[in-house]
């Protein structure tokens, strides 16, 4: 009848849910319904999709025809009663996150940026651009309803293809306030700059002061993230954490964190996040070199600490209380990880691989962070001392042993 792809619980216990739904959901939830323009449901009717299968309406999956509906609902704190629900027929794109403002309005991305009032009586399409694999809704301000939309776009510097980062800050009516990293690619590609590492902002949050916390990706250290977002000739502050990309052997994925002042739109602090191949690694050529890491989810925690998760190749810098022990016989390691930075990005408070883990969501917890995912129970790399795989951590667990092929898993990191 319905799936759950996003959830949010407010301080008063109200539960917001979103996902895909079947027509049967409509009979039980009595939702308000939004329907797309009929022209969009015809093959090629969407001018952005001309000549291909329709991007709206029912979808066929493994021989079954599914409605392609998206719902958003608000439940009572006990979860027993649906207070209101909206169904967006044929929208297909279920939200992966819900942003609930201080006034209770909920904002989400599905065929653009949508907003529903706290009491469920009003729906507004704030922005009509659909998310893609390379760009989408990054953050919503909890007070004024403004939002950040961005990612990267395919451009050309005149010398090479370049995935250019961009981010636009829109007000709560979808009008542009500011555009970041939006320079002419040909200018960036000149000998004067050559900051042509493919780059992209991937996640964002608004701090308590209203500033912008951004996590990003690049395929090398030669990125425009080294400059102020509005001034290509002005360098951003130095790397607070002292991570360095010098010695990189090939183009590689790197993580970036930065805080941008809301008034000046200048970076006030930033850090790269890099792994380093151990000196015990089998390939002598690669020892000590920066290695792959990505930041895939971001949350602002108490005391402005920065929590994030992602994937890392061999050589994640781990803190002493990590869940994993690096092999010391030259073998590769890698997989999902979780980390927490101090507010000034100078101290790595926690960092560890998550053996056997696949993260699906992270969230704020008082004086900590919650990581939700699924596990196969252990990784596939045996420890040199025991010749046994590293187990997924369980501490004070309700279920301490794997009971199926994949089990749900929750980690609470506490200060």
User: Biggest sheet: strands, sense, closure?
Assistant: 5 strands, mixed
* Average pLDDT, all residues: 89
What is the total tally of β strands? 32
Number of helices: 2
Percent strand equals: 35-45%
Oligomerization category of the chains in this entry: single chain
The end-to-end span amounts to 40 Å
Query: What helical percentage do the residues reach?
Result: under 10%
Order of strands across the biggest sheet? Answer: 1-2-6-7-3
Molecular structure report:
It is a single chain. Residues about 45-50 have low confidence and may be disordered. The two termini are about 40 Å apart. The protein is mainly β. It has helices at about 25-30, 185-190, and strands at about 5-10, 15-20, 30-35, 60, 65, 70-75, 80-90, 100, 105-110, 115, 125, 135-140, 145-155, 160-170, 175-180, 200-205, 210-220, 225-230, 230-235, 255-260, 265-275, 275, 290, 295-300, 305-310, 335-340, 350-355, 355-365, 370-375, 380, 390, 405-415. Helices cover about 5% and strands about 45% of the residues.
Key phrases:
mainly beta; four-stranded antiparallel sheet; 415 residues; single chain
Give me a quick take on this structure.
With 415 residues, the chain is an all-beta fold. It has helices at 23-29, 185-188; strands at residues 6-9, 15-21, 32-34, 59-61, 64-66, 69-75, 82-88, 99-100, 106-109, 113-116, 123-127, 135-140, 147-156, 161-170, 176-180, 199-206, 212-218, 227-228, 231-235, 254-260, 267-273, 275-276, 290-291, 293-300, 306-312, 335-341, 348-353, 357-365, 368-375, 378-382, 389-391, 407-414.
